[in-house]
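Note to self: the last two entries modelled the partners one at a time, which told us nothing about the interface. This time every component goes in together.
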Amino acid sequence: MTKFNLQSMIDKIEDATGTPGEVYDGINNDETIYIEPDQLVDVINILRDHFDCIHLTAITAQQREDQHDTIEVMYHFWKGRGITLLMKLPTSTPQLTSIIDFLPGADFYEREVAEMFGIHYTGREETPPLLLPDDWQNGPPFIGREENDAE
Amino acid sequence: MQNRISIPIGPQHPLLKEPLSMMIDISGEKVLGGSMRLGYVHRGIERLAEQRNYIQNVLLIERVCGICSHVHTTTYCYAVEALLGIEIPPRAQYIRALMCELERIHSHLLWLGILAKHVGLETIFMHAWHDRESSLDIMEAISGGRVSHAANQIGGVSFNLDKAQAEMIRSTISNLRTQVEGLLNVIETEPALHARTQGVAPVSAEMIRQYCVVGPIARASGVDIDLRRDDPLPPYDQLEFKVITHADGDAWARTLVRAQETRESLNLCDTIMRDMPDGEVLVRAPRKVPPGEAIIRSEAPRGEVFYYLRSDGSENPARVKIRTPTLSALSMIPAQLAAIQVADIPVVLAGIDLCVACADR
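The predicted structure of the combined assembly is written out below.
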């Protein structure tokens, strides 16, 4: 399996978006690039068109303990090795563009982070519940965890 | 066209071994499409993992799946060990891989039995599940558990193999090979199985890519991907094996790929037993995990398993993200159902090799 060249990928992202993709080296066994949330679709198109890298393994969201005003979202791709796109969204209005139009395999991943973290996806009609009950009333379970745990 | 009607399948249904809710739209005998709802066995394992320490989580993670429990703890433990910066002894790596291959054999034979039952071939079902017992017997003899093996610990594995156990494994594998070869012969020549699966619900390589599908389903559509070869955990980087692929992408191809992978896993068990080095199987791992993040991928019986693990330096992990291969395969089912006959619905569902508990977590 041909592996991608990280520097070449970063250069392409800068050419297309006008901002340099900043490397985050905090994750073992994976290459990670910070991007702006509004660049997501453009960057995925670059991965697909220039690097044949379109296998989306997962979407991970998380809220760090010391950054309650931010939700981190990671799109984990793989092409011989892992490449993760890392974005930071404001907790008050977390919003991303859906990619299911050209990558329908992202449907369940988007629905899961929508219900677990309250992320709103534009470009798709709705994000129906995937794992939580239909009558779930308590909001996204991964937001405000410390308060919930204390109770 | 006749009237369009919707039929519910699940969450409890004889066709399903685990709870899953589908609404399938049909017109006469033709399926038009469908939708799906998960969550009936959602246990909140990712959230629970944040409330337990790293050692307790080995036991919790083993409960993600009742079929491929070992590969989950293997992937989790490699992620914790990456954060700890420790390397487990080579013999422990080989024992982990041996258990993974035994798990693949039992998972594929279990699946073969279910497929055979769904298409009315009860004899193949009986033989496949009988033969599957041999791999479960080995795992029970060496670990103490048929389904939840508790084989992994952070830093290695819980048990070593003595000479008598090694001999028992070799002889059981040898007997199992004879049985599996017989099954393979039947599968490849049985006209009823061929007629019920060939040309049913073909999936193109492009569709596999669009739905991010992995494992035997992808390989049956000609997508040559196997993390044991392409992004290997130890000791797979030192083991030679053949990645089975097929070009047709139909239910027949998915049957052949899994059946032939069973044979290949038996060969791998032999190689692992032959090359397994002597020595210790466990190193002492610090209880405190330093802050950091790690991603580990491994090849489960159904394809790529993914773990993201973040430590904030406290006693418990700050985030454990689990992605299982069935999740992407499930998302493709509505597209696969479109334009098939109602009678082929069981074949399509069996061809996916559903593991709903894995997908729900």
